[in-house]
Amino acid sequence: LLGALTPSRPSGVFRTSWSANEQILQMEQQQPTSLQVVLGVSMEPLDQVRNLSVDRWGVENRLFVAQKIATDLFRYMQSFDSGTSGSGILTVPTNVFDRWIARFEARFRSDPNFFMKSED
Fold first, then answer.
1. 106 — phi, psi (to 5°)?
2. CB 14 within 8 A of CB 54
3. Which residues of 8-37 are buried (b: 16+ CB within 10 A; e: fewer)?
4. CA 105, 61, 19: angle at the middle one, nearest 5?
5. What is the mean pLDDT of each run of 10 residues along the chain (120 residues)?
6. Phi-psi region of 110 (alpha: psi -120 to 50; beta: other; left: phi over 0)
7. Measuring CA to CA, how many Å separate 19 from each of 13, 24, 27, 39?
């Protein structure tokens, strides 16, 4: 999902990051004239689009996406807190980042927008 067009946002620029994708760059170098790109367009209920927060922002707002990912990491780290320290210090296992990235990648494979969804 690159973004959304809605009545309140009738146009937009959606960045694909293809210019930084190694597989696409390799294909382009191997077959510069035969590279074909297929784009899909989907009509979705406005409530679903709003839940992904792309109706206002799109994904061109990289700071917003980074904040959502950082929030996911922070909440994951909080799940290890026993609450006994009381000093505002969070104690986590030494492999917390490895465990988080494995979890993040698995969730991303099943739903690439999971971290963008509103928390109800």
1. -65, -45
2. no
3. eeeebeeeeeeeeeeeeeeeeeeeeeeeee
4. 70
5. 74 69 74 70 76 57 78 88 70 88 87 70
6. alpha
7. 15, 8, 12, 16
Q: Supply the DSSP symbol for 89.
A: P
Q: Nearest Cα to 21, choosing from 37, 5, 7?
A: 37
How far is Cα 13 from Cα 15, in angstroms, rounded to an integer?
Answer: 6
pTM of the shown model: 0.46
- Cα 90 to Cα 119: distance, rounded to the nearest angstrom: 23
Residue type, 2: L
Amino acid at 60: E
Give the separation between CA 78 and CA 53, rounded to whole angstroms. Answer: 24
Per residue in 12-45, pLDDT (tens digit) is 777 666 666 677 777 777 776 666 667 777 777 8
